[in-house]
Amino acid sequence: MDFSEKTVKENLIFDGKILHLYKDDILLPNGHPAFREYIRHQGAVCVVPLTEQKDIILVEQYRYPMKSLTLEIPAGKLDPGETPLQGAVRELEEETGLRNADLRFIGELYTSPAILTEVIHMYIATGFTAGEQHPDDDEFVRLVTMPLDKAVQKILDGEIKDAKTQAAVLKTALLLKD
Amino acid sequence: MDFSEKTVKENLIFDGKILHLYKDDILLPNGHPAFREYIRHQGAVCVVPLTEQKDIILVEQYRYPMKSLTLEIPAGKLDPGETPLQGAVRELEEETGLRNADLRFIGELYTSPAILTEVIHMYIATGFTAGEQHPDDDEFVRLVTMPLDKAVQKILDGEIKDAKTQAAVLKTALLLKD
Questions:
Q1: Which of A58, A119, B63, B119 has the most crowded CB, counting CB atoms within 10 A?
Q2: Number of structural domains found in chain B
Q3: Contact A65 B115 (CB under 8 A)
Q4: Domain match, B21 and B51 both
Q5: Measured in whole angstroms, how far is the alpha carbon of residue A27 from the centre of its chain?
Q6: Burial class (CB in 10 A: 0-12, 13-18, 19+), B29
Q7: A54 and A90 housed in the same domain
Q8: B33–chain A Cβ distance below 8 A for any pair
C-alpha cells in the first residue's frame, strides 16, 4: 500500500516573520479528502561544542512559548541562502563567541514532523578558539560549561528537556565511545 | 539579570483544529518591545515499546509536512482532560495494539521551544500483550520490529530523523545499561 498523502490545494493562512502556517486540502491513502495544518520553517542548525577536556558549552535562555529558562546547545535558524555548515559556524560564533571550530555533521532532526517542516542539522564542534559573543538584538543567553558526562546525566534525569539537546548530546556521547 | 520576557498582549491569529497560532506583543529583558510568533499545542506522549527479547516496535507512517515516510516510536496528541499516562496507554494500543503494558516515565521533551509549546511525555513500555490496532480514521501506520541495538545504530547513522524517537530510544538504551 502507498501511504503517501496527495496535495489537492495548498492554503497559506498566515505568513509571519518566522512561522508560515498552511492548511492544505489533501487526499488520504484511502482516497478520502482531509486537511493538514502545518507550519513551514526555514530549517535550523545546532552544535555540540566540546573542549579538549570533554566539557560541553551550553546556553541558558528564556523560551517564551515555554514561559521558562532552558538549557540548550547553541542553535539557530538558517539565514536565506546559507548552507547548514555556514549556519553552524555563524550560530556557534554568535551565541558563544567560539571560532575556527572543526565541525562534524552528525545527522538531521525532525523536531515535530506531524505539524512542522523544521529540520535541524546537527554538528559536533571541536578545536575552537574563544572570542566574543554577539547574539541577535532580541537574544539574551548565558553560557554554561559542564563535563559532557554531566550533561548526559541531566538528560537521563529529565532536567534537560529541549529535544535537539537531548538527541545531539546523547548521540555525541555514544559516537565518541566508538 | 532577569532573562524573562513579559507578555504585553496575547494575540490569537489562527485557531485551528490542532494548531493555535499566536503573535504576542512582549517586552524583552532589556525593556524593549518585540513580538513572538509561536504555536500552542495541547501536548503529546510517546512510548518506546520493548519486548522481553529487547526488540523495539516502531511505526512507519507518512508525514505530510516532511513529504516522506518516517520511522518513529508510537506517539500521539493528548486528548482533552487526559493525563499523560492515560494518553500513553491509549496511543500505544491504538497504533500498535499492545495492551496491559508496564509504563515507565523517562522525562519530557520540548520539541521546538522557540516556536512551539508542545511537550512530549516519554515512556518505556514493557510486559505488554499483543492485540488489534485501531488507529484514527486519518492515520495509516505499518509496524516495524527490530532489535533495540539496531534502532540505536540507525539513529547514530542518521537514518532515523524524528526528534522524539532519537531522544527516547537513546535515553532508553542508556537507562537500561545502568
A1: A58
A2: 2
A3: yes
A4: no
A5: 31
A6: middle
A7: yes
A8: no
